[in-house]
């Protein structure tokens, strides 16, 4: 017993200790990505099965509204921490942008092409000639560059949530916006000083809170609206899938909170007591519309603490990272399940069938698209 105790590593004192001990490759982040991606799928199945009124009723209780409100902020906090790590390691802004591009766009492009040329012709209510010549057919390709369009001509018109092919893509412009902010902050020299990162985070938070910047649609979405206008289905998309109206702005803040924790990683303790306190604080702040925008920092700490725990990797995690594929393919395949009537009125069956189908496409996305594209990173190092 003494020998075992003597050879076991001491507890990590800081986030940096834990991060560097495992070379930034803890399994906790892998588990977290999968759990959050599946949680989004399950929640969407509930909404796509029962509709808006059922979502409103479920969100009226804290037992549902708090976990649901945590999902996307945790995703963005996780991304902020790890993407900032990537920025610190990159030897130039160009390399950082190439890495981000290889991670985001190839898989997104393949998903869009499959939706347009496979899903569309099978499920459209229009004649194929009309489908392939429709304005929405051509506009849908803008999804490849993050200018999100939700409709393909004649698809899913009779579903509980009609006409939307991939509702999950509404978060892509905000992810791109976060990447842009990191580049701007880096060019300004903010990341040379942890205090400058802290000042930037406080300034952005105060801007959001004091100026009531809750309905801002973000720079990427504003660009799309300027070029092609906003589709009819978009304004109510987030609400129809259970997202709060303030969510877009808090996602950006959570990303920046993750970046802040990375900048201060050697000063922030890695401690389960702090994680428990962060969980309580996150729940309390997210439950209050007046305090909602103060939640990003505790949400980010909780997320990073969970991610930095290194648990034994399940076989699934050793095979690859399927979370992005789940995110990309879940909503379209859930709409297929809804359109088929296979799980009408039974959301758990809807979720199970959707997950089974999505798993196949997520594996395809990782092994055929994402992993080969990520290997190209070595050419830029």
UniProtKB/TrEMBL annotation:
Transmembrane segments: 31-50, 62-84, 104-128, 168-188, 195-213, 247-264, 276-295, 347-369
Domain Acyltransferase residues, every copy: 28-358
GO molecular function: acyltransferase activity, transferring groups other than amino-acyl groups; hydrolase activity
Keywords tagged on the record: Acyltransferase, Hydrolase, Membrane, Transferase, Transmembrane, Transmembrane helix
PANTHER family in the cross-refs: ACETYLTRANSFERASE (PTHR23028)
Protein name in UniProt: Peptidoglycan/LPS O-acetylase OafA/YrhL
Provenance organism: Jannaschia seohaensis
